[in-house]
Amino acid sequence: MHEDFARQALEEGSCTVMGAIPRASNDTRLVVVDHAGTHLKAVYKPASGERPLADFPQHTLSLREVASYRLSSHLDLNVVPPTVLREDLGAGIGSLQAYVEDAGDDDSVSLTTVNAIPADHTPMFALRTEDGTDLVLSHDTGDELRAIAFFDLLANNADRKAGHIITGSYLPGSGPTSIGTYGIDNGLTFHAEEKLRTVLWGFSRSSFRVEELDALDEVARMPTELVSALEECLDEDEIESLQRRAEALGEAGTFPEPPEDRTVIPWPPI
Length: 270
Fold this sequence. Notes:
By secondary structure, the chain is an alpha+beta fold. It has helices spanning 2-12, 61-74, 143-155, 210-221, 224-230, 236-252; strands at residues 14-20, 29-35, 38-46, 83-86, 94-98, 101-102, 109-112, 121-128, 134-140, 165-169, 180-183. Strand 2 (29-35) and strand 3 (38-46) form a beta hairpin. Residues 249-270 are annotated as: Disordered.
């Protein structure tokens, strides 16, 4: 119900662009959407404002944001906030994603000293700050992060930073039942080559659950409905690569270990 309303608001609502969101690597703008008497905050990422990248085609990151939501929604993973494609906003075609208000009490991913790592967390890597303090990034292995890690495997996410994981709600005044844990900033996804970079490697070697195997089988079959949802955003090679990834993951039966022949942690990781 919440998701359907938010998606419809993003698709049909009247938008007021409030201004640029600071410190974003690409043109990213805060928008207020007015729909059916409700005001919804959203994030607008116009394709025209994307910085050129060496390994991703230009003006495709906003499309990948939309494809990420469509894959998450198709598989009922609910890990990407509602995201639509709009062509009628000031800077042209781009993604419009429901803004997740941080609940403020999430510690699923932590950066602490070695002695302060939470008991239910798995340490991922250590780093040293400019003042010489040694810190460890760790994360819990609960269902919420597992769902994001599983999605990232399929989407081949090349940039799952800790700061791209938010627990909160995207509908104002909807109460605690609407709070979820979401992965945002999904523009570096669906590359045809293996690109997975994430801080969520703590699920490595875990056997896939029945529902995860079912999701992998669904993508491996690549039904017409899923192709139709993705082909507006991704090219044929990228869709075929997604299908092959699902097949390979299903055959392996477990979350993979980090490969040793390339960088597997995004930078900066936070």
